[in-house]
Here is the input.
Amino acid sequence: MQARSSARWLALGAAILVAGARVALATPVAGLAPPTIDINGKALDPSALHCEPRGGVVACEGSNLQGDGYALDGWAFLLNPDPSVTGTFNLTNLAATTQTFILTVTLPVAPVGPSLVATGSIGAGTLTDLNANGATLTDDGTAIYSALIDGSSVRTLMDPPQSFTAPANPFGSPSSVTIPGESFGPELLAQAVSSSISIRVQYTLTAGDQVAFPISFAVQPIPEPGTLALVAGGVATLAGARRRRASALPSST
Here is the structure.
């Protein structure tokens, strides 16, 4: 019973800390550049991405966007100035040969810091063989997922070597295989954000095949030492009051 109570107090303290950290950037900051999504270094047309403000965040949703040798068959991203990036995308290799794709989602933000707590993930993906001759996804010598702050990688997932195959279906129908997801955090980063956070997904995909991934990256400022002391003191006061109330109760024996 005592262990459960201690866990609840710890959870309460953590919740207060997170809430205090989030207040600082809960309101979007005017004057920031719009978020961008680019593939192989070429920014996609903002009007084609169907981005719109939605309850303090920017939502980008759509399907059937064709580019140079690929098709985005579906995408849905929420870009929050808090700041965080979450979403999914579904990309098909339209070329006749294996290609490397680099998809980057960048969110300009107001400065955050001086230290951060970061979390990120690349969820369980799906590799689909659309042309009934098998499909393969591999790394291209770098991590498949990278979380970036101000354009520099701070954390990677699915580091090399990575290789996944959807076998050819003898009946000519599409086949698929699940790509296991990975995640990190909460992790302390002893640095600030000056201007942006990004997610980069980079892989090599066989011709005529498709892959879908959910991805996320979020950072939160760590409260200043004075705020931490106030929170710690508040939690200690609440815990002491609870102990005093418990000791004042009649014994059950």
